[in-house]
Amino acid sequence: MFDKILIANRGEIALRVLRACRELGIQTVAVHSTADADAMHVKLADESVCIGPPAAKDSYLNIAAIVAACEITGAEAVHPGYGFLSENAKFAEILTEHSIKFIGPSAENIRTMGDKIEAKRTAKALGIPVVPGSEGGVSNLEDAKRVGKDIGYPVIIKATAGGGGRGMKVANNESELELAVSTAQSEAKAAFGNGEVYIEKYLQKPRHIEVQVLGDGQGSAVHLGERDCSLQRRHQKVWEEAHSPALNPEQRDAIGNRVAKAMANMSYEGVGTIEFLYEDGEFYFIEMNTRLQVEHPVTEMITGLDLVQEQIRVASGNKLNYKQSDIQFSGHAIECRINAENWQTFVPSPGKVDAVHFPGGLGVRIDSALYSGYRIPPYYDSLIGKLIVFGKTRTECLMRLRRSLSEFVIEGVDTTIPLFQRLLGEEDIINGHYDIHWLEKFLARTAQ
Ligand code: MV4
Known about the structure:
Layout: E1 4-7, H1 11-23, E2 27-33, H2 40-44, E3 47-52, H3 63-73, E4 77-79, H4 89-97, E5 101-102, H5 107-114, H6 116-125, H7 141-151, E6 155-159, E7 169-171, H8 174-192, E8 197-201, E9 207-216, E10 221-233, E11 236-242, H9 249-265, E12 269-279, E13 282-289, H10 296-303, H11 307-315, E14 332-339, E15 351-352, E16 355-357, E17 364-367, E18 375-376, E19 383-391, H12 394-407, E20 409-411, H13 417-423, H14 427-431, H15 438-447
Parallel strand pairs: 1-2, 1-4, 2-3, 4-5
Antiparallel strand pairs: 6-7, 6-8, 9-10, 9-12, 10-11, 11-14, 12-13, 14-19, 15-18, 16-20, 17-19
Bound molecules: ligand MV4.
């Protein structure tokens, strides 16, 4: 096991990793920008190193500064959290060259899954169901038309280097194809420096369901069930739950076992998420995330596993000491992302937090680096905390969520808490009847 880990991140996820390290008896090194000198992760870590000015590109994305911080402090491994350098294959390689362990999958696996066409090809070859579409990239209108004829309309054009929904275009028929392809190509070129696009059948009312996996890089992998992340706004998740209200145990086992087998076959190391669109009882792979995700706590609540401790264990060379049948699911968990934003416009609201009171009690978990008097800097993501509630049933979970939100106090900045209070008044939410478009429609309705 490692003696000292450097946490290359900030905010609630830096605290989350720090807590896992402390329980494992591992020393922690925090890194921070000049804007984060007063941040909670710096206060709680055993040591800290300032790695640069506020802009992320000069600090949390500054590979040379982070490697130097490891060398100064003698950290043997780096936990990248999510965002920042967590899916940067080059970073993983550079750490390896410096004999520092990157806590996560191999640079090769990160690179494969970071290329959306390669990811899809790999998933398909490993027996994971994918969305019907082009075999690889499409570079001209004739090829695009052939694919359109083959799979039928509507189709969606996506950037190979994309992600987060940027540069996607829908064509409802062949006459819309030319403009959709050329717009997608030029947007992809401008945004990612790579104009390659591919085509898929457009699913009109899917849910976003993702399967959590954990592998040891030595041929064993298990799945930890799924999360339903359909409630999103502009490709930002807002509410996540485990299990998905749409699946039964047989469907869960079937997709989970397929995915776990695929990950074992690629000797995947660490945690990963296989994202699917789910419509009319069928799963369609879209992307894989090769990192710990923001919403991992809902999986922890229903499995009892500490995913960060598991990441650290496999990174230090341990094999999984359990098999799929040892993973037991119980109850239901929901996470609400608390952002410092106006709940209707989602305009960021940085600034001084005058007062904080967190809810508590049975089945309530808060992952947050907030404290009373803290000044939320304007330079980073507006996520300031996560409320995660657990219940024996989804109904109990919803009641506990309503109760927890009523106790929550954050004064001085706008937050998304009022959004969740309103969502709990919606029949579709209570019944679990929602798809990826539900939240945008709800917000359009409440704006009037
Ligand atoms: C799709 C789709 C419909 N059909 N692919 C958006 C982000 C990227 N991860 C994939 N996305 C989508 N891909 C096909 N073939 C609809 C979306 C999509 C979406 C997906 C998940 C969650 C929210 C979404 C909101 C709009 C569009």
